[in-house]
Amino acid sequence: MSIGHESGVWPSLGETLHVLTFQGGFNTSVVLVGVTLLGVAAGLVGTFAVLRRRALMSDTLSHATLPGITLAFIVAVMLGASGRSLPVLLAGAALSGILGVLTVQFISRHTRLPEDAAMGAVLSVFFGLGFVMLSYIQTMATGEQGGIGKFIYGQTATMGVTDATVIGIVALGTTLASLLLFKEFRLVCFDPDYATVLGWRISLIDLAMMALVVAVTVVGLRAVGLILVIALVVIPPAAARFWTERLWVMAVVAALLGGLSGYLGAAASALFPRFPAGGIIVLVAGFFFLLSLLFAPARGVLAAGFRQLRLRRDIASQHLLRGLFEAGEAGGGEVVPAAALRSRVHGPAARLALARLTWQGLIARRPDGLRLTPKGREEALRITRNHRLWEQFLMAYADLAPSHVDHSADLVEHVLSSDMVEELERQLKARGRLPRHAGPPPSPHPLASGA
Amino acid sequence: MPITLASFLQIDLPAMLAALLATVSCGLLGNFLVLRRQSLMGDAISHAVLPGIVLAFLFWGSRATWPMFFGAACAGVLAAVIIELVRRLGRLDSGTAMGVVFSVFFAGGVVLMEQAAAHAVDLDADCVLYGQLEDILWLAPTGLASLLEPAVWADMPREVTTLALTLAVVSAVVLLFYKELKLTSFDPELATTLGFPAGLFNVLLMVLVAAVAVAAFEAVGSILVIAMFICPAAAARLFTDRLGRQIWLSLGFAVVAALGGYLLAASAPLWAGVPSALAASGMIAVVAGALLGVAVLFAPRYGALARAMRLGELAEARERAAAEPLATNLSNR
Amino acid sequence: MSFLAGHSAEPSSPLSSRPEHRPGSPLAVHGLTVAYNKKPVLWDVEWDAPEGRLIAIVGPNGAGKSTLVKACLGLVPVVSGQVAFFGSSLRRSRRLVGYVPQRGSVDWDFPVSALEVVTMGRYGMLGWCRPVTRRHREAALACLDQVGMADYAGRQISQLSGGQQQRVFLARALAQEAQLYFMDEPFAGVDAATERAIVDVLKRLKENGRTVIVVHHDLQTVRDYFDEVLLLNMRVVAAGPVDEVFTIENLRKTYGARLALLEQASSALADLARVS
């Protein structure tokens, strides 16, 4: 799959397209398909692992595969077989990964040490053991030890058709298995206690989940490397979380993002064989995470910021409308002089609100001040009514003094939904405190005169 | 290779000193990480310092200590801040936030490192992952007599002096703020009401962890640093119920792991039949892990075996208690 | 959050004035609103704690009793309102305020002895970086003795019973030598000996002119143990001397139907606060 670039030379657009459209040679295309499938499977399996808060358990597991790989290599060479046999190495990896997870469980169950200390210890000690064995392998005269290093950082450039096929088969298998166990995983992630009550064996379902993570992790070693393979399991699901509040959408988005990261990362590493594939794939996934964190409409940061801005504007608008209405009520006449409103219209949010209300035709500017238009009066009436209804509620049910309720109601009028207003009316009616006319009840406290 | 006094002084002594200083610094801080259930923050930070190290290296073009130290500390603290930001802004659990942030940082470091390697300089991924204890040489001493000359000491390898300085700073901070660290670890709410902001000490601890992770990574590598942070402290935790005693014990374990690991690796030609020494940093982690393993199984009060025996006795006593009234009833009849 | 505070600081009708607080009052809570999502909330709490009295905070589960204590101590975020201690800010009067948290709030497996935990109460007087001296350790031991726990000074805290742990917490608060104490459910799940010890300590604190505010769940003992009571259910239902306030009528109001709308509005407010 080597396209053979000198370091530092950028591939041309043609070459890039060539690779991306599976025309970069048979080998390249097979690897591309394999890593993409890996990304899909990891995203899907990772969705459950992340929701079950097993993200760092997956990390421990992947670090713990190193001694298994090296031991399998040593044993294979001692028995006279080739140390490069992928199935043998992967079997070793899977076994020691599982052993690592079991050790963590043993320590946290049978001693006072917390799970995080157990994970950290197992992760680093297993890795250290693997490294010692690696240095032992360096002293063996086999000439095959170069293959092991690929498992630490991952390299797609030297992947063969067999590697890609193994990845593809396992990825398909784990995808299928997680679809079959979707219902079980969902309940265990959401409410393990309830699952127990239903008679499910939680430990068995957890084991199945970890087994799927092991499968994905172990076949991912070759492509992404054992330090970074956790990223494929964790990052796409974490990114997918920002886009939706539904589990199956999250799983689909995670699988898509994982597949896309694998596809783009593998293509990039075909074009730049010098760079470790694992690093590139993870950076692509990390880029998608950043995009999701910032721009996702459901839970993204910018969307939240935008919502807040709108809320602020609405609050300022409602505040202004009620101010104008109450000023009229207090006998100030139709037109409220600008000077009287100074306490209400200050700050950028309020000025923006004023401009917008004028533009919408709710407020008319007069040379001597502001006036509510008929449309604006209607809106102001609604807001003032909500405010006063809440004040009445606080006095009737929460026993607050009239002098206090304005302050309390001030915030609430902006968050009252129509359901809540209906409930308010119902409760006030029950106590006979709902005004008969559709307008707002009179204010329980004196209003600021003139404003 | 026959071991002579000169070769011991030049090769083994500086490596052992570096290993010792690194494990003791890590072990000291590890006590607080384990007690605060922040072991994995040490893990995350030690992974995340990588891009800082490489960037500093690319920028200054040499392996000078302070720029790399600065770069790494920045990256470590930045990672801790971003983890917290991602956790809050993204409303993710802390494990997921850590997994996302440190793997992206590490990936960035790995890719940058290839860029650095393209400039044909001696910074490769392996030395960052595993450290290069064997490459720490002290060429000045030629014999015991030469140890009396100040010039020889002035030639102490940079890694060792950096680590010694780090240990001095970490010990000073822990001694100075021992009371505050203890309080904020045990009861952060009380600490806050007493006017010792728990958040501030959290930041302080993270900065120290980043600093130690950087200083130690040259000696033992970024992943094995985690073993030094956690294993000695976790093992000591199983032996005692006093914080002071736990800290001293963990330092003892750190010393045993450093010296035992190094000697075991260096003497491999004697016991493993291999032509050269095995990886010392890995062996130190293995010895630390073995100490923890022994503690987990055999610690007198809190080990798994002791617990199992206590549980067994309890069950037996219960059985006896349950059987007794039955027996008396039967005999009464 | 900031804009909410700013917004509420500018009441729409300037005439809605509030009562002035006596400067010396150990605790003055003013318009305190705390809103979480789906957690106990507080609605515009207005309360002055009288000095030198034993005060119980009473209310049903989820009424926000612990939340009130934590909000006063700055341990949970506040939507709006102010809290003053002895007429000044918490920052200035930290030394005067002691706190006995709920027993579940710390890791009892932590490697410290009972005496060390009590000594932690003296840390505020010691200041930064100063080591614990003999004088403070002796003072801590005296406090342990006051709660009848001197014999257990060297014990690791996980080896104490629940009641003994509670007494250690109490001794730690005594060691703070504060003027005002907050205790969060100290009587919850303790044995008779501990209950007596706590009552003794409360009496002694009162004799020395200290103010103690206790989150309490046992209605039977309110009259026996306390002088004053604050009836709380998301908002203050009533506050004052036990004889006047602790009436069937007020209790029915406190423990009556929950104000679902108030809860709903608080939840919406919490969303608003989170978005900002």
TrEMBL record, chain A:
Main location: membrane
Cellular location(s): Cell membrane
GO biological process, alphabetically ordered: response to zinc ion; transmembrane transport
Bilayer disposition of the protein: Multi-pass membrane protein
Sorted UniProt keywords: Cell membrane, Membrane, Transmembrane, Transmembrane helix, Transport
GO molecular function: DNA-binding transcription factor activity; protein dimerization activity; transition metal ion binding
Matching InterPro entries: ABC_BtuC-like (IPR037294), ABC_TroCD (IPR001626), Fe_dep_repressor (IPR001367), Fe_dep_repressor_sf (IPR036421), Iron_dep_repressor (IPR022689), WH-like_DNA-bd_sf (IPR036388)
Domain Iron dependent repressor metal binding and dimerisation: 373-430
Region (Disordered), start-end ranges: 431-451
Gene3D superfamilies: ABC transporter involved in vitamin B12 uptake, BtuC, Winged helix-like DNA-binding domain superfamily/Winged helix DNA-binding domain
Transmembrane segments: 30-51, 63-82, 88-107, 119-137, 157-182, 194-215, 221-240, 247-272, 278-302
GO cellular component, one term: ATP-binding cassette (ABC) transporter complex
Family membership: Belongs to the ABC-3 integral membrane protein family.
Protein's UniProt name: Metal ABC transporter permease
Organism: Marinimicrococcus flavescens
Automatic annotation (TrEMBL), chain B:
Naturally occurring in which organism (per UniProt): Marinimicrococcus flavescens
Record keywords, A-Z: Cell membrane, Membrane, Transmembrane, Transmembrane helix, Transport
GO annotation, biological process: response to zinc ion; transmembrane transport
Compartments (UniProt record): Cell membrane
UniProt xrefs under PANTHER family: ABC-TRANSPORTER METAL-BINDING PROTEIN, METAL TRANSPORT SYSTEM MEMBRANE PROTEIN CT_070-RELATED
UniProt key word Cell membrane: yes
This protein's GO CC annotations: ATP-binding cassette (ABC) transporter complex
Transmembrane helix is among the record's keywords: yes
Membrane disposition: Multi-pass membrane protein
Membrane-spanning parts: 15-34, 41-60, 66-83, 95-113, 160-178, 190-213, 219-240, 247-272, 278-300
Annotated signal peptide: none
Stated family: Belongs to the ABC-3 integral membrane protein family.
Matching InterPro entries: ABC_BtuC-like, ABC_TroCD
Main location: membrane
Full protein name: Metal ABC transporter permease
Automatic annotation (TrEMBL), chain C:
GO terms (BP aspect): zinc ion transport
Region named Disordered: 1-23
Domain ABC transporter: 27-259
CDD domains in alphabetical order: ABC_Metallic_Cations (cd03235)
Gene3D superfamilies: P-loop containing nucleotide triphosphate hydrolases
Gene Ontology terms, MF aspect: ATP binding; ATP hydrolysis activity
Keyword line: ATP-binding, Ion transport, Nucleotide-binding, Transport, Zinc, Zinc transport
Name of one Pfam family that matches: ABC_tran
Homology family: Belongs to the ABC transporter superfamily.
PANTHER family per UniProt: IRON TRANSPORT SYSTEM ATP-BINDING PROTEIN HI_0361-RELATED (PTHR42734:SF5), METAL TRANSPORT SYSTEM ATP-BINDING PROTEIN TM_0124-RELATED (PTHR42734)
Protein name (Swiss-Prot/TrEMBL): Metal ABC transporter ATP-binding protein
Originating species: Marinimicrococcus flavescens
